What we know:
Layout: H1 12-22, E1 26-27, E2 29-34, E3 40-45, E4 48-53, E5 56-63, H2 72-80, E6 82-87, H3 93-98, H4 109-113, E7 117-118, E8 127-128, E9 133-145, E10 149-161, E11 181-183, E12 189-191, H5 203-212
Antiparallel strand pairs: 1-11, 2-3, 2-6, 4-5, 5-10, 6-9, 7-8, 9-10, 11-12
Amino acid sequence: xxxxxxxxxxxxxxxxxxxxxxxxxxxxxxxxxxxxxxxxxxxxxxxxxxxxxxxxxxxxxxxxxxxxxxxxxxxxxxxxxxxxxxxxxxxxxxxxxxxxxxxxxxxxxxxxxxxxxxxxxxxxxxxxxxxxxxxxxxxxxxxxxxxxxxxxxxxxxxxxxxxxxxxxxxxxxxxxxxxxxxxxxxxxxxxxxxxxxxxxxxxxxxxxxxxxxx
Length: 214
């Protein structure tokens, strides 16, 4: 018999734990942003995914700091209306996680962690030079989802990729050159691992296969 957990009976923190443990793996948006004084911030967020292609949108769910204050990344995005989503690979995973530490507000995570930055191509916000992919985004919409969380929608203006990662003609990804990091739950992370192709069949082939199954 299946267990049922009614979310109306759970605390928000309990819902968070169960959802994060269930909806896996999740990509990590390692966001670089810039404040009004020109200080560059870097922080990872795993409530993140691609949302649309026309316009090209990504979405990020961002909660508040433990004390209730808004996160620097949220303030920077709202002020500058631009940010970069850096995709971390295995080689950058430890530094990405380290940037989630609570740094002083007047300290730049990339500078403190020795991360080289590259200037933005289409936005005035730099990206992490070693990241295999960086998505340069402008703020499309910012919405408060209750007192603790905001939804950020960013319009992708450019994709900057490591040499050889995408075929210049077909725009297809060279999977063998990509080793992205995925968030699981708690302090657990995963890698892409073995991949395989599974094309969508026609409905006729799908039903025939089911009928022929023992």
